[in-house]
Amino acid sequence: MTRKLLTRNDAKNAVYGGCILGGGGGGWIHDGLEKAELAFLENSRPELITVDELKDDDYVACVSLVGAPSAKEMYINSKQLIETVERMQMECNKPIKALMTNENGASTTINGWLQAAATGLPILDAPSNGRAHPTGSMGSMNLSEVSDYVSIQTFAGGKGAKEVKGTVIASLDAAASAVRSVSVQAGGMVAVCRNPVQIKYVKEHAAIGGISQAMELGELFLSAPKGLKRIKQVTSHLKGRIIHSGIVTYFSLNKTGGFDIGTVHVDHDLELTFWNEYMTVEILGYRRSTFPDLIMTFDTNTGMPLVSAEIQDGMEITVITIPKKNLKLSTTMFNEKLLKVIEPYIQKKIV
């Protein structure tokens, strides 16, 4: 099926499946569920389409949330989400034929569903990346390698004295950096519509079928028995493995430049590092998995996925890893220049 009218149940599945594929980032489940509900309040419903429904020279735009998941003062309402798309339609000199999300995550898989329902634009079953990632460039389908590409990014967020909205038109790196800085001023996060690009380019660089994958994974997760059996079923489906279950003995989180950066120790044996998303996992100093492999944490007792920002000392958690070859990934996840940016933040080798 190339077109599908989305339902509330699809949204719920997408939130839970997206959370797992978020790898520690991509937003919180409760935020995703709240945002999903908003997409179905009006009479219209968002529609999911495949890339084959559009012509190669049709333009689509990416919708995203930019900021630190743990930010306490972040605020984005429905009007602001829709406003970013409307502003992009005015700024871009080509008609926008569909919206795509930047990544999979509890909140980010359904990026654009509300905007799609409000504007009549469909959602493309092709996120910029099939897993969550920390930087804007990682969610830009290697447009950073297109020397003459000019990025258009419209943004809105915050409330009261912190409310911001506007447009940045610049090189990809400059635009991404500017929007990241604005997110800090807005209280920690902004909604963004960015980087109009042709479908032909999307086909070559995006995670085709990534939204369907998240919905399928979410349905499987929610149908499984609670607890460790649920975690095992998810891990088996994604052809990964459980590497450790234990008690969190140390947790640190620092907000730096609009990112969550930190470390988790489990039973004093296992160490996780994260930069929004989990970047590395080591047991007794031996590297077991490295981003963009998927590393994810779960509450051992309930089987619920836990993003990096909600880990606490004393929690009983289970850590899983999924090899990158089993994920739907953007070409950015194989761009060593983009991956090397991670290393100074976590003080670990990635490339």
Automatic annotation (TrEMBL):
Residues 175-326 form the S-Me-THD-like C-terminal domain. It comes from the Bacteria. Residues 11-147 form the S-Me-THD N-terminal domain. Gene3D superfamilies: CV3147-like (2.40.390.10), CV3147-like domain (3.40.1610.10). This is OsrF. The lineage of its organism: Bacteria, Bacillati, Bacillota, Bacilli, Bacillales.
